[in-house]
Amino acid sequence: MTDHQTTVAGVRVDTRHSIGGRRVASARTFTDVSPVDGSELGEIARGGAAEVDAAVTAAREAFPGWAATSRAQRARVLHAVADGVERRSEELAVVETWDNGALLRSHRKGVLPRVAQNFRFFADRLLALDHEDFTTRGHRNHVSWDPAGPCALITPWNAPLMLASWKVAPALAAGNTVVLKPAEWSPLTASLLVDVAAAAGLPPGVLNVVQGYGAEAGAALVAHPDVRRISFTGSVPTALTIAAAASQRLTPVSLELGGKSPLLVFADADLDLAVDLAVEQYDNAGQVCLAATRVLVEEPVADAFTCRLAERIRRLRQGDPRDEDTDIGPNVHQRQLARIDGYVQRALAAGARAVVGGGPNTEAGGLHYRPTLLTDVAQDSEIVQEEVFGPVLTLQTFRTEAEAVALANDTRFGLAAVLATADRERADRVTARLVAGTVWVNCFYVRDLRAPFGGSRLSGVGREGGDWSFDFFCDVKNTVTAPEGWRDHG
Ligand code: NAD
Q1: 123 Cβ partners below 8 Å, 6+ apart?
Q2: What domains can you pick out in the chain, each with its CATH number?
Q3: Does 486 have pLDDT greater than 80?
Q4: Could you tell me if the CB of 156 is within 6 A of ligand 1?
Q5: Residue nearest (by alpha carbon) to ligand 1 atom 35
Q6: Residues labelled as active-site residues
């Protein structure tokens, strides 16, 4: 650790902001602590209103130049960023694991390829972005996607680089400039992304990063008058604050928030598949917005399903997230661990039964929480209604399809739903009645970048992904052109 640099697993990371192509320090710093072993990873610049203002100003000044580049040129730069991500993917994967504790093998095999793909996809999509002209009494209507201006992008800690690239790539493809504020619990890969982007030829000021706390740097960013779009992924309470700030200037917001998604297991389902789907909900130690943490099982198969699931959960291996054999790594932070345990202990006190787990894993130590399966939970209880964001599933039973749908929809959220059933007609009937941005039938986490992504109710506002990202990040314009000589014809 030096003044403005830290070295994590041999990778040098600049701990300052990146503003207008330059590294900028702050008078204050905060300490970034690793969930892997509690070690201090670095002293990170703690930005506030002044740093945010400098970054938005840099983004505003860089905007006309970047917005004026051709689509082909922007696409070339984004592909070069993807190349850079691929070249440095091992370093990015290792630093991300040290910073947020998620499995190294997931970062290597799933996350980093996806980060590169985000840049490639939006580059290619930009080139294909088109809407057929149409005419109104001979007048041509032409739709174009104009860049909107500086965008504020705010991301959480559970998938830092994946979510940053999911927002940065379409914002830049659209011709916008960006100020990215990563989460304070996992700030490092955003800094490395700046290095990758600069090496790829992204002009100074097009991608700026301000580090810091949400209440300081984040709040200043969303309140800044020159910000033209706010894309936020995080929790509902923060989203309410951001929406209130954005409403002062009617700045368009895209909010990707939490969930409490159901996994519906019908008696006709392939139970092995259903158990596999349930076990997948423990990925990333349960810190996944899409996780279907409310398991709803049809009564005739409930006992058999519960036994098989419990058996599988007991076999999950907890440990060092860098080990290939580990299934569940640590949770991100002591505060998150305490929050998870608070939910579980209150549920147990209210009469829930822990079939498996029910507390921190004291043998694994550190920030490990035992994968937990709770039954005997009431539909209106906190554990069923609130997002835990940890490795905790509840299990309830239902008798009829109508009851299954009613239970599934009885929450304030509407992010996703997972169905296990062998009956396609049932799947269609149930899907049509579920409130959810994404429904997976007999599968989970199959995510095509062309698809819309977002949530209903408190799970979010708006959709990103595919052309929906361009609709959000652009000022969509319709130009109506009269036919030549139209006045001559009356
Ligand atoms: P959080 O809301 O606490 O923080 C998210 C980001 O917002 C951080 O960068 C934080 O610094 C910033 N922030 C905090 N207060 C702010 C303020 N007043 N103004 C501006 N920015 C502020 O969320 P978290 O705990 O980091 O993340 C977990 C949440 O994210 C969960 O609810 C999870 O479901 C959700 N999430 C949603 C998705 C999705 O796509 N729907 C994906 C991942 C995570």
Answers
A1: 74, 75, 76, 78, 79, 82, 169, 173
A2: 5-257+455-478 (3.40.605.10), 262-441 (3.40.309.10)
A3: no
A4: yes
A5: 234
A6: 256, 289
